[in-house]
Design a protein that fits this description.
Blueprint (H helix, E strand, L loop, with lengths): L18 E7 L10 E13 L8 E7 L4 E2 L5 E2 L4 E7 L6 E10 L5 E9 L4
Antiparallel strand pairs: 1-6, 2-7, 3-6, 4-5, 7-8
Length: about 120
């Protein structure tokens, strides 16, 4: 029996003074023909550091409506990723981001997860 482990990605190190766009790819979790749908719901938790009330801000959370090409050349089809504008955070902290999405399969809901580390001062 082959097991398919879905490892939680770690996003690139972010400086709390930066505002960046993050992309969370759901391609591996979608069956052929399935897409993400609806309005994504965001949960953010500080897992390390001094930020007891997460100051990390995600805004403009959307499912991609155009094909995407990531920096390393990976292509993502329409409806297979979530993007968000990411700002703030606390130096030396790490955040756990979970974004819940409906799919075109009415029996399937996905939670896209990632760890986001913050740089030290």
């Amino acid at each position: 029996m082959r097991m398919n482990f879905n490892l939680t990605p770690q996003l690139s190190l972010k400086d709390p003074r930066e505002t960046v766009v993050i992309t969370m790819d759901a391609t591996a979790m979608l069956a052929p023909g399935e897409t993400l749908t609806g309005t994504p719901e965001v949960s953010i938790k500080a897992t390390a550091g001094a930020d007891s009330t997460p100051s990390l801000v995600l805004s403009g959370v959307v499912i991609n409506s155009v094909p995407l090409t990531l920096l390393k050349g990976k292509a993502i089809a329409i409806g297979a990723a979530v993007q968000a504008v990411c700002s703030a955070g606390t130096f030396g902290s790490q955040y756990w981001i979970a974004i819940t999405c409906q799919t075109s399969n009415p029996n399937k809901i996905l939670v896209l997860k990632a760890a986001l580390p913050m740089s030290s001062q």
